[in-house]
Specification:
Rossmann fold; formyl-coa transferase, domain 3; 6-stranded parallel sheet; 38% helix; elongated
């Protein structure tokens, strides 16, 4: 694979669950060497977060989603000799990534100050629920809780006045994923800075900070108007019509982003009278008269099937789409054309299906070639290659249960 922009960089990954592993998987896909440190006999919690599982290795699908491209090394960091091994590995690495509670690694001498004393230019990225300071810094943070605390769930779900109304979390751990991507972005910025200054960096990332940061237009809606945004179901707070509508046999998403698109939609729907209706002539007017227009559109959309609407609206360039289940997603011709499902060889199960990294770099997809590793699969190899340990030393460490 020629497109490996981070080739030559080495990441020591002490993280687990999702935010940290998502970050290090991104770095692995970009070409970095990632050494995933795991607890002997236990490993990343997500290895057991199933079903579903791979049939032979019994690795959970959750774990498989975030650990492509890594080498698994099992070291007991609670033992002094295990800490010494980590210290030696740090000398061979550019980045340390961790998501322990604030201060959680200090007692193991694996905190930033301890490792900076060993390698002065180390880039150290800490991911926590609430950051390294503040009144909540000591608390554990989980995606679901942060979606609520950080405001996302107040914006997601049907209004209280409608059947099934109430706050709803996003269907994937989106705050963890965003945090992982921000972490990867920050690490790459730190590597770029290091190439100019020869200095390392300390990166403090908090799930709550990220959740507030990605409230995007909704945050600015509030800060600009001082009006608290309410849940709108599938509707958009600033654009109308921009939501899901029932058809005669299902649903369709209608995403009319400007007045020209609205005009073309009206023509397809044979509702030309809406075009010059003073209530609907501009997007601002359509937002103001949302309820009236949405009810009119609902009646029209029920007259034809989803496929009919999709075909007719696509011809005139009105953005629209179906609401696919995942089987239909991976059967979609565009998804298949872009090779968004990939298959890698697996040492126990023969092969494993994964989702491709969406980045195309010089016309190539960026996907690490290593499958998600078995627990401790690379312990001996990494410790021999990087630290020069002998077979006898490895055997002694295993006997002492420092490695497995």
């Amino acid at each position: 694979m020629s497109a490996q922009p981070l080739k030559g960089y080495r990441i020591l990954d002490l993280s687990r669950i999702l935010a940290g592993p998502w970050c290090s998987q991104q770095l692995a896909d970009l070409g970095a060497e990632v050494i995933k440190i795991e607890r002997p006999g236990e490993g990343d919690d997500t290895r057991r977060w199933g079903p579903p599982w791979l049939p032979e290795s019994k690795e959970a699908a959750y774990y498989l989603a975030a650990n492509r491209g890594k080498q698994s090394v099992t070291i007991d960091i609670a033992q002094a000799q295990g800490q010494a091994l980590i210290h030696e590995l740090v000398k061979q690495c550019d980045v340390v990534l961790e998501n322990f509670k604030v201060g959680g690694l200090k007692k193991y001498h694996l905190d930033y100050d301890s490792l900076k004393a060993i390698k002065s230019d180390i880039i150290y990225c800490s991911i926590t629920g609430f950051g390294q300071d503040g009144p909540y810094a000591h608390r554990a943070g989980y995606d679901f809780m942060i979606q609520g605390l950080g405001g996302l769930m107040s914006l997601t779900g049907q209004p209280d006045t409608e059947l099934g109304g109430g706050p709803v979390k996003v269907g994937v751990a989106i705050t963890d994923i965003f945090t992982g991507m921000y972490a990867a972005n920050a690490i790459m910025a730190a590597l770029l800075q290091k190439s100019r200054t020869c200095e390392g960096a300390y990166i403090d990332l908090a799930l709550l900070d990220v959740q507030v940061g990605v409230l995007a237009n909704q945050a600015l809606n509030y800060l600009t108007s001082h009006q608290v945004p309410q849940r709108l179901g599938n509707a958009h707070p600033n654009i109308v019509p921009y939501q899901a509508f029932p058809t005669s046999d299902g649903f369709i998403i209608l995403a009319v982003g400007n007045d020209a698109q609205f005009k073309r939609f009206c023509e397809v729907a044979k509702c030309d009278n809406w075009i010059d209706d003073p209530r609907f002539k501009t997007n601002a007017l359509r937002v103001e008269n949302r309820q009236i227009l949405v009810e009119l559109i609902k009646r029209e959309m029920l007259k034809q099937t989803t496929d009919t609407w999709l075909a007719e609206l696509e011809v005139v360039g009105v953005p629209c789409g179906p609401i696919n289940t995942l089987d239909r997603v991976f059967a979609d011709p565009q998804v298949q054309h872009r090779h968004l499902k990939i298959t890698l060889p697996h040492p126990v199960d023969g092969q494993v299906d994964l989702v491709s990294n969406p980045i195309r770099f010089n016309h190539e997809a960026l996907n690490a070639k290593l499958p998600p590793p078995l627990l401790g699969e690379h312990t001996s190899q990494v410790l021999q290659d990087l630290l020069g340990l002998s077979d006898l030393e490895l055997a002694e460490f295993k006997e002492a249960k420092i490695i497995a």
